[in-house]
Amino acid sequence: MGKPDADGPGLPDLPPEWGRVVVPDDASALAAEAEQLRRELRGTPRHSVPRAVARSPLALPLLVLLVAVLTTLAGLAAVTWPRSGRSAPEPSPGPYAPPAGSVGRPLPALDLVDAGQSPVPLRGLVPAMIILVDGCPCPDDVTTAAALAPAGVTIVTVADDRPVRVTSPPGGATVRPLADPAGGLRAFLHLPARAGATTALLVDRSGVLVGVVPEIRSAEDYRADLARLAA
Fold first, then answer.
1. What 8-state DSSP symbol labels residue 113?
2. Helix, strand, coil: what percent of the chain each, to 5?
3. Which of 157, 168, 159, 169 is nearest to 128 (CA)?
4. Do 116 and 106 contact (CB within 8 A), yes or no?
5. C-alpha dihedral (164, 170, 171, 172), degrees to nearest 10
6. Nearest to 180 by CA among 230, 139, 127, 130
């Protein structure tokens, strides 16, 4: 049986608008009210229940900023990270190709200079094997050509600034050292000088270019043409 102890001892002060509070002797007397309260709670929409932890309005911008920073750091690491792979070796330069259209053309009327800076008409030295030594003095190439040259054929060496003197081999052709400061022969051939290499031009007695060796590697590169210059 309930006891009207709203104003009795042992209970805290309750709001007056609650009215008279009756505390039952048996808790099972409240079973019906408890069941009704559970039903009402089950039927309450979830969105009406306040969340314990509210979502921060800065969460999305912070997430976007974090992703941007991580992406930037990953890109920098990919660019600056040392590569352990072996770099591909550079291809070794191949031999020069003979300039197209040079063979069969007349030698240009160039005046080169000798050791005393006196002009020497190049056409006045034909038939001749002209060796361009502006990329390399290469005296062995010059003496070999002079030893193989038939009688009447002049071996002419052409440097860029000053003539390079080479001693003629015994019994060989005379070597005439000249210089081409203006680079007229290279311009005629459209063939640049190459370090460590010599270039040969073979000109018959009529002044026509019969052979070009862009880079002398051995005497076999010009032997046949050199032999025909005396004809």
1. E
2. 30, 15, 50
3. 157
4. no
5. -20
6. 130
**Beta pairing, strands 154-159 & 175-179:** parallel
| Residue range 171-204, pLDDT digits in tens | 889 899 999 999 999 999 999 999 999 999 999 9
Token pair recorded at residue 58: 């800065």
Q: Cα–Cα distance between 191 and 75 in angstroms, integer?
A: 46
Q: Any idea which residue has 């032997």 for tokens?
A: 223
Paired with 208 in beta bridges are: 106
- C-alpha to C-alpha distance for 60 and 54, rounded to whole angstroms: 14
In contact, 147 and 227? CB cutoff 8 Å:
no
Q: What does pTM read for this prediction?
A: 0.58
Q: Look at residues 56, 226, 43 and name the one whose alpha carbon lies nearest to residue 129.
A: 226
